[in-house]
Write a structure and sequence with these properties.
two-stranded parallel ribbon; 4 helices; RNase_H-like_dom_plant; RNaseH_domain
Length: 101
């Protein structure tokens, strides 16, 4: 999506510390995880200045809300200007939680 919309300086956040470590420290794993991580790194390098960041699970509640909403509505949730009202408060809470980490 970042490539489609010509976005740069993208920060991808996840609460999976193992994934961030594997993406930031390339290895030559020959299993499915290694192949997937190499593909993800290749895509991120195409973006330009993209990077991964680990955040604590408590600061990532908005992602869980969006995942549940997307599966419930069976459609992709994408916005560029303002997030939906049901998510604004949680994004603010996540931001506060992340800054105290």
């Amino acid at each position: 999506m970042a490539l489609q919309h010509d976005l740069h300086d993208v920060v991808l956040e996840t609460d999976c510390k193992v994934l961030v470590h594997k993406l930031q420290h390339p290895s030559m794993e020959q299993n499915e995880v290694g192949v997937l991580c190499r593909s993800i790194r290749r895509l991120l390098s195409d973006i330009g200045n993209g990077r991964w960041r680990h955040i604590c699970r408590e600061a990532n509640e908005a992602a869980h809300i969006m995942a549940h909403a997307e599966s419930r509505w069976n459609e992709s949730l994408v916005w560029f200007d303002r997030p939906p009202n049901y998510l604004v408060n949680q994004l603010q809470l996540d931001s506060v939680t992340a800054s105290t980490d």
